[in-house]
Design brief:
The protein is built from three helices and five strands, in the order αβααββββ. The chain is of the alpha+beta class.
Amino acid sequence: MGPGPSSLLQRLEQISREHPDRVLRLRGQLPLALEAAAETGAAVENEASAAQTSAWEPFELLIFRGFSSSVTHPTAYDPDQSALPPGAVLGSAELLAGPLDPSNEQVLVAACALDGFLDPAAWA
């Protein structure tokens, strides 16, 4: 079994500090039950049972210069708190030229498995 999503995110953030001209876009899914509970402040009794829901929604996270921020869901102001919501499932990543220019986005490495970006050479 590989590293958990939060551990993986921390490793990618660390690598991104050494590549200030790169942005890593992560895409994945978030169970709706957990998202609804987070928005209302309600407690989720059991994360495993919430993750069994068939209702998922996509989410997107950007990593730039050692920091992560969600572009689809609220992100905590505390940089020590993970930007990944509980129950998040990471799917793919793509490497972009940074800083981002939405009118002229430059994809350097098309969507692929996240594990490949654990190698700092993949960011070059």
